[in-house]
Design goal:
Blueprint (H helix, E strand, L loop, with lengths): L2 H29 L2 E6 L6 H9 L27 E5 L11 H10 L2 E7 L7 H11 L5 E6 L7 H11 L6 E3 L8 H14 L3 H7 L4 H19 L8 H18 L6 H16 L1 H7 L9 H23 L6 H16 L1
Parallel strand pairs: 1-2, 1-3, 3-4, 4-5
Helix pairs in contact: 1-9, 6-7, 8-9, 8-12, 9-12, 10-11, 10-13, 12-13
Keywords: GTP-binding, Nucleotide-binding
InterPro entries: GTP-bd, P-loop_NTPase, Small_GTP-bd
Pfam family, one: MMR_HSR1
C-alpha cells in the first residue's frame, strides 16, 4: 500500500471511530437530566434571571414576597430533561419542607446562589444558607443581581469573594436590563462542561450562537496545538476526532442531522479546497510541515473555518457552502500569520 493510500485509510478509520464515539457521548448527554437549583432571598430575581438566560418564560415572576410556594422541581415544554427548583426565599415562610429542598440541592448539577446588590449583600440568613449548601454541593455560581440599582459593584464582588475565600465565581448582573447575562451564560456553560452537560443546557437557550462560538474557538485552539506536534502523522487521529466532534456537537445544538458520510465529506472536501489538492493527496491529514508553526496555523484555521461555516449554514438553513468555508479559512490563516 502506498503512503497516500495508507494515510487515506488511516483518516477514514479515524473518522469512523470518532463519529461513533462522539455520537455516543452526545446521545448519552442528551439522555441525562440537568438539575438546576436557584437559591436566594425573596425577590432576588431568580426567576427573571432564568427567563433572561434561556430567552423563554420558564419561571414565574411576581414582585410579591412569598410568591414561590412550591419546592417541586419543574420544567418547561421542550425542556423535559432540564429541571429547575426555584426554592422558596431564605426568609420565606412558605418553606415548609426544607428536607426536600436540601435533597434537590445535593443532586443539583449547578446551584445559582443569588444575592441582592441593592440590598444587604450576603446577609446573615444568606451566609447561614450558603454555608449549609456548601457542605453538600460546591457546584455553585454566585449571582450578584440588581447591579443597575447599586454602586461600587467591584467592591461588592470583592467582598463576596473574600468571604467565600475565592472558591467560587461571582457574576454581577442585572436581570432587569440584561447586563452581563451573557457572561453568566458562559460561566454556567463552563461549569456544566466539567459535568458533561453543557450541550444539554445550550440546546435549551433561544440564542445558541454564543455557545456555538465558544466551542468553535476552543476547537480552533486545540487544533493549533495538535497541528504543531513535531511527530509526523501524529495529528491524524486527534485532529480528525476533534473536527468530527465539533461538527456533531454543532449539529446536535441546532437540531440537525449529520451522517457519517456527511461528516467525511465535510472534512475531506473542505480540506481539499482549502489547503490544496496537491498537498491533500500528499498527506491527507491536511497539515503541511508537521511540527512547524505553519502546521498549527493551518490546523487551527481549517477547524475554525469548518466550525463557522457549518454554524452559518445551520443558522440560515442553507446547504454547506464550501466556497464560503474556503474564504473563511484564508481569512483565519492570514490573521494567525500576523
Amino acid at each position: 500500500m502506498c503512503v497516500d493510500e495508507s494515510r487515506r485509510e488511516e483518516f477514514i478509520q479515524a473518522v469512523n471511530k470518532a463519529y461513533a464515539e462522539e455520537m455516543k457521548k452526545i446521545n448519552d448527554q442528551l439522555d441525562k437530566e440537568l438539575l438546576i437549583a436557584l437559591v436566594g432571598e425573596v425577590n432576588a430575581g431568580k426567576s427573571t434571571t432564568i427567563n433572561q438566560i434561556l430567552g423563554k418564560n420558564v419561571a414565574r415572576t411576581n414582585p410579591r414576597p412569598g410568591e414561590t410556594v412550591s419546592i417541586d422541581p419543574y420544567n418547561h415544554e421542550g425542556l423535559e430533561k432540564i429541571k429547575f427548583m426555584d426554592t422558596p426565599g431564605l426568609n420565606d415562610p412558605n418553606d415548609e419542607n426544607p428536607k426536600k429542598t436540601l435533597e434537590f440541592i445535593k443532586k443539583a448539577d449547578i446551584i445559582l446562589f443569588f444575592t441582592n446588590a441593592a440590598g444587604t449583600v450576603f446577609s446573615e440568613s444568606e451566609k447561614e444558607r450558603f454555608q449549609e449548601i456548601e457542605q453538600h454541593n460546591q457546584n455553585i455560581l454566585i449571582v450578584l443581581n440588581k447591579i443597575d440599582a447599586a454602586e461600587d459593584i467591584d467592591g461588592l464582588v470583592q467582598f463576596i469573594k473574600s468571604y467565600t475565600e475565592n472558591k467560587y465565581d461571582v457574576i454581577p448582573i442585572s436581570s432587569k436590563t440584561g447586563e452581563n447575562i451573557d457572561e453568566l451564560k458562559n460561566q454556567i456553560l463552563d461549569l456544566l462542561k466539567k459535568r458533561g452537560k453543557d450541550l444539554l443546557f445550550a440546546k435549551s437557550m433561544s440564542d445558541k450562537s454564543a455557545a456555538a462560538n465558544r466551542w468553535i474557538v476552543a476547537a480552533g485552539v486545540s487544533a493549533g496545538a495538535i497541528g504543531a506536534v513535531p511527530i509526523p502523522g501524529s495529528d491524524v487521529v486527534p485532529l480528525t476526532a476533534l473536527q468530527v466532534g465539533l461538527l456533531l456537537k454543532l449539529s446536535a445544538l441546532y437540531g440537525k442531522q449529520l451522517s457519517l458520510k456527511d461528516a467525511k465529506d465535510l472534512i475531506i472536501i473542505t480540506a481539499a479546497k482549502t489547503v490544496g489538492q496537491t498537498l491533500y493527496r500528499q498527506v491527507v491529514k491536511f497539515i503541511p510541515g508537521a511540527g512547524s508553526a505553519a502546521g498549527g496555523v493551518i490546523a487551527s484555521s481549517l477547524t475554525l473555518a469548518l466550525g463557522y461555516g457549518v454554524k452559518h449554514a445551520y443558522e440560515n438553513d442553507i446547504d454547506i457552502n464550501f466556497d464560503k468555508i474556503t474564504a473563511l479559512f484564508h481569512q483565519f490563516r492570514k490573521r494567525k500569520k500576523r
